[in-house]
Amino acid sequence: MSRTSGLLAAAGIDKRFGANSVLRNVSLSLAPGEVHTLMGENGAGKSTLFRILAGIHQPDAGQISLDGAALDLRNPSAAYGHGIYLVPQEPALLKELSVAENMFLGMLPTRGRFPSRIDWKTIRGQAQDALSALGLDVDVRDDAKHLSIAQQQLVECAKALLRGCRIILFDEPTSPLTGREVGILFAIMRRLRGQGCTLGFISHRMEEVSEISDRVSVLRDGAVTDEVGRDGFDRARLVRAMVGREVIFDRRRVRREAQGEPVLSVRGLAHAPVFSGVDFDVRPGEILGFSGLIGSGRTEIAEAVCGLRAKSGGSVMLAGRDISTSSIGDIIEAGLVYVPEDRARHGVILPMSIRDNATAGQIGRLQRKSGILNRGREIAIANDTMHRYQVRARGIDQPAGQLSGGNQQKIVFGKWMSTNPKVAILDEPTRGVDVGAKDEIYRLIEELSAQGMAIVVISSELEELIVLCDRVIAIYGGKIAAELKGADVTAARVGAAFLGAEAH
Amino acid sequence: MNSAATATSEPGHRAKPRPRRRELREVTLLVATFVVVLGVGALRPSFMSFSNIEFMVLSSVVLGLVGISQTFVIITRGIDLSVSAVLGLSAMVFGLLSTTSSMPLWQVLPLCMAMGAVLGCLNGFLVAWLKIPPIIATLGTYSLYGGLTFIYSNGLQVDQVSPDFAAFGNGNLIPFLPVPTPVLALIAVATAAWFVLNHMKFGRNILAIGNNAAAAYNAGISVRRTLLAVYTISGALAAFAGLVFVAYTGSATATTGTGDHVELQSIAIALIGGTAIAGGRGNLAGTVIGSVFLSVVITALVFLQVPAIWYSAGEGLMILAAVTLGARRSSNP
């Protein structure tokens, strides 16, 4: 185990998915015996870069080399052959198979001549030894579905070592882990580093990054914007590299202090251990930002407020009415809507036409007495949505799936706004949307707020929060970690709160 | 995660040794089968006659062979609706050759199985290479292969197979051992299938693909070739089941197999036996016992003088009951 891995270098990597350019001329090198961390906003291309190094995706341009020798990583097996292993964000263990079999997947040893039998004894023995070496004490005969995420990640580590891999890439391993589990993972990462392994790491959490990393590269919009060694760590510098152009922050000059009675009032909302003690108010005409990392509990809080998820305690008042136990239908009727993060899954029905999508939120109101839908009204609403939200499409009968992400999002907006809500919670409203459409969506949000709607914007993009919001609440570890308003809503303050650095 | 889950999920801390859960499904099914046999036997003594028991055993061999191949297909997250049509075509080819040609049994038998393998291979090609969803691909070939039977037989039916051929259905391969040859064949096939699934790479690859085809591919498993092999085997076994059917019933018609919805029966057997419809998990012992159960239930309906128009509905109710009980158990591990 003392053999060191070589220097893994990627040079000039380009990668596009369809029309979407994900990586542009990215170069990165991972030196033996270092923990090299990638940082960057969601969608910056970190996972894609790791997946290219692990042979899952193939770059459109550029070269990957190990100790100067070019590698052809056409599939993951080829990457294993060169000692490179990716521990995926969601561990991909086969749930119905034993832990031992998972570890030897694709390389099950056999004994005897035809029909050669699988050598279960060797498999169990070696699997158990490999796990023990990592300090993981589970029965390798147990089905993988019984393991926790943390245990699955360690099994993935052991899989890498069994394949003789010395370059192990961890794609955001800590986001589903508890603090204690993170400690155990880091102890193992340090041990592997001590044995000469090269480790790649992705994390958003500043304190984790400074604890474990020897080197940090920052990606933004598919390009490397900064690279610093251990001695050069500086929060402000990393945040700046992640977020970029500060000019755009100037767009919003006035942050209003909304007056009047809160239209939505949440008190003591809890669902242990995901979130607890959540109190906040939103007033008419106000845009409230919810910042936080994925896994911070921000989406869960929003879903609980809107009745989409169970809560163990707390009250939600909408315009003076307690809706904490109301059904989803009643909540929408009462004037609270939630526009989810994952458009394709929860927001827009891709194969259906713009007309069907635009009217889906109020189909009940379009029925005539006879139960037959009022087609004329349907067309009128769809046309109105297209016009008001500037949806670029061939016509209202075009399937939503053919539109760009931004235009799909506008339809989802139109669908919910046509119910005339008092409060709208928008989860990642510009995820996967290009810059132009982003601007239009911002304008729409501001317009709706000017008409008196209270809006909550959940976002992990700093820039978005700063451009849009009157007030920002930072969620960290399921709690409200900070509240910023007025002149405090700055890139530095929001960025720090977002990464858990700004305590109450 | 609640606090109990957190306590067992810490990596350094060994979870309480989990008792290896005994799969009780086989036992439950066996008990249910015996209850039906004894109950109906008490009401109608002829149900327990040697000839009826032999009939039920032989018909469960047919179901069992198709059930085993269906189990393999379902483990891969697929489904093979064409098995009944392959069974029927093979039965027709076997029956017509036995009466109209002078080909000996040892030539007709492999010929039919090879034909089944080719038809299964086409299914595999459609699924693995052309990426057609299995339910659609095999629905198409179900009609196609069923139609070939009509074309080949020209609507004729075989009423009597030659004694040589029939001997394969109800003769004893081993002297002094009063076990019909088809039962020995089912035991051999089931044992081989169990060995493949548990002790050979091919079988483990099938399970891996059913659990997560992308992960299996990433681990270097050839997903396409494995799927092709699974559908090919499914075709060959269905053809073999057709031979057994003709040999013990002595007849074949253009709707043999498809008329009884053997494809649905085989799926039901696999599910009753404990194979997961979502793939990744299979229970061959359950499949074999399930085939006995289904054959007993179908025969019992006849003996109880249930009007024939009720057979299909009664069979359906029994399948739903068995699958519902099974589903409740498996959703509650």
TrEMBL record, chain A:
Domain ABC transporter: from-to ranges: 8-246, 258-502
Matching Pfam families: ABC_tran (PF00005)
UniProtKB keywords: ATP-binding, Nucleotide-binding, Repeat, Sugar transport, Transport
**GO molecular-function term, one example from the UniProt record:** ATP binding
This protein is called what?
Answer: Ribose import ATP-binding protein RbsA 1
Originating organism: Acidocella aquatica
UniProtKB/TrEMBL annotation, chain B:
Which of UniProt's keywords are assigned here? Answer: Cell inner membrane, Cell membrane, Membrane, Transmembrane, Transmembrane helix, Transport
Region Disordered, annotated ranges: 1-21
Q: Where are the transmembrane segments?
A: 24-43, 55-74, 81-99, 105-128, 135-153, 173-197, 228-250, 262-279, 284-303
Q: Where in the cell does this protein reside?
A: Cell membrane
**Entry superkingdom:** Bacteria
What membrane topology is given? Answer: Multi-pass membrane protein
| InterPro entries linked | ABC_transp_permease (IPR001851)
Chief localisation class: membrane
- So what does this one do? Part of the ABC transporter complex LsrABCD involved in autoinducer 2 (AI-2) import. Probably responsible for the translocation of the substrate across the membrane.
Q: How does it assemble?
A: The complex is composed of two ATP-binding proteins (LsrA), two transmembrane proteins (LsrC and LsrD) and a solute-binding protein (LsrB).
Recorded protein name is: Autoinducer 2 import system permease protein LsrC
Q: Which organism is it from?
A: Acidocella aquatica
